[in-house]
Amino acid sequence: QQQVKQSPQSLIVQKGGISIINCAYENTAFDYFPWYQQFPGKGPALLIAIRPDVSEKKEGRFTISFNKSAKQFSLHIMDSQPGDSATYFCAASLQGSSNTGKLIFGQGTTLQVKP
Amino acid sequence: NAGVTQTPKFRILKIGQSMTLQCAQDMNHNYMYWYRQDPGMGLKLIYYSVGAGITDKGEVPNGYNVSRSTTEDFPLRLELAAPSQTSVYFCASTGTWGSSNYGYTFGSGTRLTVV
Question: Smallest Cβ distance to A100: which of B50, B90, B108?
């Protein structure tokens, strides 16, 4: 019940296209859903995050869509650029009712944007 | 502002050897974490700490130990290294949920090979 399942494992998109990565969770108590971007040789960096009281959050070309009833959330990258080529991780956490701040990560998606 | 600093960046160990991975943060974060990253597996939590003197096991603690004597430092000890511990190790920290300094910051990682 603590798992977060992420798909696809890898994704190839043409420059200018839309990249979509999906995640599903089981624990309905999760209350914080961040996405991380990781470039080769670097640590993950926070990209965008959402709370379950909103269905969508947009920051520039990056949008999180959240479906509470389906227990799914997804990352959309609009107008994908070669510089977006990286590994993306979704994560989930019990923040409000926990004092540990632990994140449960998905398996990761390697995105390649072709010029 | 250095953020989260991990040393060393690379290390090769022989089976049965021991070593300590160092992690230091200068953001006065209470929460610190050690994750390991294996291909296609995402990030798995090894140990975490919610403050100096307080540590607890994560999802994959076997073969590791931690200590937290100060707010800044959170070293990870590997005893009797095994090939299964070949991985990339990331340290992360965050302030408490709801505080102005909430948000995971990751170090740049330590790539460990056990031969």
Answer: B50
Handedness of CA B89, B91, B97, B98 (dihedral sign): negative
Interface test with A, best of B32, B46, B93, B104 (most A CBs within 10 A): B104
pLDDT tens by residue, B78-103: 989 999 999 999 999 998 877 777 88
* Contact with chain A for residue B50, Cβ under 8 A: yes
Which long-range CB contacts under 8 A does B57-65 form with residues at least 24 apart?
Answer: B58/A102, B58/B33, B58/B34, B60/B36, B64/B34
For A7-42, what is each residue's pLDDT tens digit?
Answer: 999 999 999 999 999 999 999 989 899 999 999 999
> What DSSP designation does A100 have?
S
